[in-house]
Amino acid sequence: MSVRVALHSPSGSRSFLERGLLLLVILILLEGTVLTLGAASSPDIGAQDNTGGHDHRDDHRGIEGSRGNTNYTYTKKAFPVLSLDYHHIQVPFEISLWVLLASLMKLGFHLIPRLSSIVPESCLLIVVGLLVGGLIKLVGEEVPPVLDSKLFFLCLLPPIILDAGYFLPIRPFMENIGTILMFAVVGTLWNAFFVGGLLYAVCQIEGTYLSQVELLPCLLFGSIISAVDPVAVLAVFEEIHINELLHILVFGESLLNDAVTVVLYHLFEEYSGAGEVTPMDVVLGVICFLIVSLGGIAVGAIYGILAAFTSRFTSHTRVIEPLFVFVYSYMAYLSAEMFHLSGIMALIACGAVMRPYVEANISHKSHTTVKYFLKMWSSVSETLIFIFLGVATVAGPHSWNWTFVSVTVILCLVSRVIGVVGLTFIINKFRIVKLTTKDQFIVAYGGLRGAIAFSLGYLLDKDLFPTKTMFLTAIITEIFFTVFVQGMTIKPLVDLLAVKKKQEAKRSINEEIHTQFLDHLLTGIEDICGHYGHHHWKDKLNRFNKKYIKKCLIAGERYKEPQLIAFYHKMEFKQAIELVESGGGVKLPSAMPSQVSMQNIQPKKLPPAVAERALPQFTKGREEEIRKILRSNLQKTRQRLRSYNRHTLMADPFEDGWNDFLLKKQRMIELEKKMTEMSNYLTVPAAPPDSPTMCRARLASDPNAFYNIKASSDGVPTIQVDLASPQSPDSVNMLNEFSKRGATDQDLGQREGADRDEDQGLMMKPSSAGKEEKGEEEGGNKNPGLMRCLSDPGPSNEDEEDEPFLP
Amino acid sequence: MGASQSARTEHEFQDLADRTGFSLEQIGNLNKRFRQLSKNEQTLSRQDLASISALDNNPLRAQIINAFFDKRNLRQNEVGTVQVIGFEEFLMVMSHFRPAAMHITEEEREKLRREKLRFVFNMHDTDSDGTITLEEYRRAVEELLSKAGTIGQETAKAIADAAMLEVASTTRGKMEPDEFYEGITFENFLQILKTLDIETRMHVRFLNMDTATMRCGK
């Protein structure tokens, strides 16, 4: 009944889209039977169907055969022009429908203004799940057991955890590892025993009709319900933008308590069958915990290293790079689960271990792909989990016991608060940055429960645990309580308490410099103090990493790159992309974020001679011409993005090539030095550019100067843009292209040939100065063909782009 | 005699503890380390610090050693360098690395922050003129990357330039081409490192236990 009310009241305010969705759902229901999604997800049932059908046919034939081949010929039926075979596609079709529903729901929430700012998405999704489940029930179908444990643990959970592990902020995580472990291990243990024990005590009270509940099931229930859920925490904490410390504390706890939960769960499940618990079992339990957690980490780390090592050799097959990240991680998860080790910890370890090496190895595009795929999968999984939670609530058999449920909710809150306050009291004695009362409150209040608890409860054996349905009802209530009440109120509370929020500012290079600086400084001070503290060991580990591990796992020369340089390159690279994307060079200066140019900070030491020696050889018109040619080249490279090749992503020189471009900086610098000697500037008597940054800065502030320098100097620093990798044949030399363009202007056919060559990724020869000049001269000539491709490439040009690139 | 001397040092230590905020145990430990480094002399020279083998791999070795002999870090309002430092000065420099106390007011936090940042600033500002010029910043980054081989040296300049540009653009906003940014002043320095929680990050764990004896056991 309540479902119905819920169905009607919000539908008035619902958007058209959602109404459409509901219609869609009804349509599905009408069309076919919404079979179990559990069945849908596990192909074995479909396979069974197939084999069943097959057997049937065989039987049929067998029967016919036994008839003695009397009537072997079939009567010919009319050829079915259109036939309907829903069962053929049912399984993938329904999976797709669920995913579509989930994604559209997510989309819909963000279309409704202000709704998503008030209610967390997770709550809305659960409500949607309730509605869908209610609808299915209304139509009279059996609600599918969507949140099947197998589906949940093998398909829905891994993407979320991998996403979390891969993008785990290692630094704050490691800095607070002690606190996190304390909360995750001791805190969870405390919660489990406190809740379980007290629940048992309550159950023994006369008049609650719960006296049949024994101690061990209670403890099992306690261990299920006590674990903070990473999915729920992520969903809520991502929306409240809490500061990094609190986020990593709660989130880290939710990740690491998995080992404790797994061990407790298996332990109590085992003993519930056996009955007696001896001290020996407790010892075994502790050993088991160590094996489960450390084993999980070890499995993850092994796969992580394997993934990193594999990615070392992918430079020729960039397209499948991202796959390695996913597959190795999933293998790590499955391998860990195979031994009943902590799969979550394996995934986290795998993601965290592989990331730095993989990122250094794979191309920028692959990195983006990894990022997007992880985010996409985890977000769809999360959406599905919450929807399924709602559906499962409608579906499941419930046995509501007021005492049990309310006591559970209260005990969970109480034990969480006591646990956090007590543990913080101990932890604060060791922490340098103490946890304040506010922090403790948020940590305690952020302890949300979620679908993991539900799935674990769902896994329970009905025969061993006659109270399973009551447990499930209590678990669902607790999940709903934490997700709805705590999840919805935590945001206002954070604002009310003025808890420090996360600063959204992007990391600046100065900060990065000083982070590194501080690391070394503190290590040095520790050494002077003569005691080997954290910084000392961290430094040792870093050096070991640099010396041996990186060498093995990172291809090429990049392993030598210190973190600061890597960061700088990343930043530089982002700017380069922004530069290219900000209008293909035409509107270059206005789009640049920086409003200060290198001239402003450069010490004024330029000799006046330099300014005077600037050679105003070219007329204004010539300059304009040269500039346009260069711009057209910029455009050209952008257009090449559109091209498609199944085996290799046609690389955008401004992306993939940039890294190599950076590595070849030395050559650039040399050339620039040479250039400085030549000092034949056209317009701007600027200081001699002595670093690439400065060049870029000048490019930003005054692109004309940049172009002029580039175009006119003799030892032209070529904008060397190599694709993919230095060895790979796909490389484009822009200035070379420019020169060739110029040289071949007169012969359009030849030009086309040259372009095709480029598109096929042939190696360009290094440009020679002579050719360069020729190109300039040619460029100086007014050529309509060239002019055309400045702003709008002509039709012939486009035809070229559309051509297939592989012969 | 011995008793009176120890009483004297105890009194001295108490005095130092009041001024630097270290506990008596920590001062005792640091004093042991000081005597170990200075080979039981009253003063510590640059050579003494340079002989610490663990520092060899630190890219900031020279800067760190210089910081100990920089008068600006000795909490006296003087500029310049000294050749040798006593235990008191040693402790003064070390006191910049004390962790923040648990309950401090916002003002105290800000003060602590300024002190710690001032220490870093002074390390960059080698000519003590109150600004970090581009040259100084480049040198600082070069030192930071000095262990990275040739790649480091080439990129250091570019990084320093980029960082300087960033400082100029965040602190000055738009600048005309003919304007000149002299260098990072301390106020600018505070501004650009606003998001770096230096008051909680720039600290070393000063042990209360006696580490010297602990290491002897190893």
UniProtKB/TrEMBL annotation, chain A:
Entry GO terms, CC: basolateral plasma membrane
Start and end residues of each stretch annotated as Disordered: 46-69, 741-807
Entries under Gene3D superfamilies matching the protein: 6.10.140.1330, 6.10.250.1040, 6.10.250.2020
Transport among keywords: yes
Major localisation: membrane
Keywords: Antiport, Calmodulin-binding, Cell membrane, Glycoprotein, Ion transport, Lipoprotein, Membrane, Palmitate, Phosphoprotein, Sodium, Sodium transport, Transmembrane, Transmembrane helix, Transport, Ubl conjugation
Family according to the record: Belongs to the monovalent cation:proton antiporter 1 (CPA1) transporter (TC 2.A.36) family.
Name of the featured protein: Sodium/hydrogen exchanger
Taxonomic path: Eukaryota, Metazoa, Chordata, Craniata, Vertebrata
From TrEMBL, chain B:
SUPFAM superfamilies, per the entry: EF-hand
Keywords: Calcium, Cell membrane, Cell projection, Cytoplasm, Differentiation, Lipoprotein, Membrane, Metal-binding, Myristate, Nucleus, Protein kinase inhibitor
Ranges that cross the membrane: none
Domain EF-hand: 112-147
Principal location class: other
GO terms of molecular function: calcium ion binding; protein kinase inhibitor activity
Pfam families: EF-hand_6 (PF13405)
UniProt-annotated location(s): Cell projection, Lamellipodium; Cell projection, Ruffle membrane; Cytoplasm; Membrane
GO BP: cell differentiation
GO cellular-component term (any): ruffle membrane
Membrane protein topology class: Lipid-anchor
Family statement drawn from the similarity comment of this UniProt entry: Belongs to the calcineurin regulatory subunit family. CHP subfamily.
The protein's name in its UniProt record: Calcineurin B homologous protein 3
Organism: Salvelinus namaycush
